[in-house]
Amino acid sequence: MLKPHPLLIQGGMGAGVSGWHLARTVARLGHLGVVSGTALDVILARKLQQGDPGGHLRRALSAFPDGQMAESILRRYYIAGGKRSVEPYRRTPLPSAPLRRDLEELLIAANYCEVFLARDGHDGLIGINFLEKIQTTLLPSLYGAMLAGVDIVLMGAGIPWQVPGVLDALQRQERVQYRLTVTGAVPGEDHQVEFEPGAYPRLASQTLRRPAFLAIVASSTLAAALLKRATGTIEGFVIEGHTAGGHNAPPRGALRLDEHGQPVYGERDVVDLEAFRGFGLPFWLAGGYGDPSRVTEALDAGAAGVQVGTAFALCEESGVDPLLRGRLLERVRSGTAEVYTDPTASTTGFPFKVAQLEGTMSEERVCRERSRLCDLGYLRQLYRKDDGSIGYRCPGEPVESFVAKGGRIEDTHGRKCLCNGLLATIGLGQTRPSGYQERPIVTAGDALKDIARTYLRGGPSYTAADVIDLLTRTPSAPLP
């Protein structure tokens, strides 16, 4: 069991937004610091090509249990002094089933490094957040995080019923499988990826402990289904409302859009907290809880605490590019910050919240400047080819290519490349041979405009400690 329960969970945001520096800061202050497990392989490779400023990644790799693997990664990606800004990053292999050996190694090492650095120098709690929709890279990613001693795994954006059993098996250093979601699969077919710790003798000799598992859900119905179907124990739930940043669960029932083209949520989307109280497991509320009054409200409703994303995403320790963060905070201060719940931006088909900011992918003209391309592949759809093998297609790739693979042309309308956009948000955007630089896409929750009132009090920025200090004040304590 997960005890004691943390009051605050710092959200596992974007690709690298909730990086090790932010998570370590939050954990040192007595709460659950969470790193994002999305695209850590690319983040490691690109930061090494930037010269690894501060030497943090090389320090983490020097502690990795397989020195030969670490040296191989350094030889492949590290550039002393960093690459020139006009040069493209060396590409990493695309996720596939099965994974290439070099990508599997990179995933293990990248997740190890992120958790190792987050846990360094304190005894607080560190979690890692994954999207269940990104399935092909999950097993080696979990293994790398466990090698570094991660305390908690959090997962949403899908139905993670297989994960608890995977954690049990990996703790025993056993071979694991993960059933894939493949569009068009016929009855009786079972598409899986597998991971064998024994293929890495130096790693398989390590003693691992099983992290707690928190499922991120949007309804009691999904939570009940997980408890019934899960392959192992679930230690709690994060209940994420549709006001949270990033991907949102779609509204229940037929999709309706408001006058601005955003999904309309209604009574059916209100979470049944009584049902969660009946499960007998701790739960945390997420989506608009970055205010002390909402923390009190959550505790009064029986929650163990809250998960906060947007407030941490824009603090000084977050991974968002500092210039980009400063521009967005200026809009917050001026009262012009806006968040649009885009029903088509994500290639997953889930609504995705996009902060409106000049020069980013929130602008239609910026989107038109980009040639459609899918070269990172995390959100590609797996589909059954005529010969029974797995194919890959992305609604964000060239339209003719997507349609030729059996995709529907209407699924390409309005799609944006979140993979490249989110990496650009943390200063790791790719440079194309044409000279085109990938543009960022910034996600934030509906609480974005409240940051000026809550945190920006007399200064241009704020820290993670400021967020925690405010959220843990007693209700009678005066605001600063």
Number of helices: 18
How far apart the termini lie comes to: 37 Å
The name CATH uses for the topology of the domain at 8-320 and 450-471 is: TIM Barrel
User: Which structural category do the helix and sheet elements fall into?
Assistant: alpha/beta
In words, what does this structure look like?
The chain has 480 residues and is of the alpha/beta class. It has a domain at 8-320 and 450-471: TIM Barrel, CATH 3.20.20. Helix content is 32%, strand content 13%. The protein has 18 helices and 14 strands. The protein has helices at residues 20-28, 40-49, 56-62, 67-77, 101-119, 138-147, 163-171, 201-204, 220-229, 273-279, 292-300, 310-313, 322-334, 364-369, 399-404, 418-425, 451-454, 464-471, and strands at residues 8-10, 33-36, 126-131, 152-156, 176-179, 192-195, 212-217, 236-240, 283-286, 305-308, 339-342, 352-355, 381-384, 390-393. Strands 1-10-9-8-7-4-3-2 form an eight-stranded parallel sheet. It has a two-stranded antiparallel ribbon with strand order 5-6. Strands 11-12 form a two-stranded antiparallel ribbon. Residues 476-480 have low confidence and may be disordered.
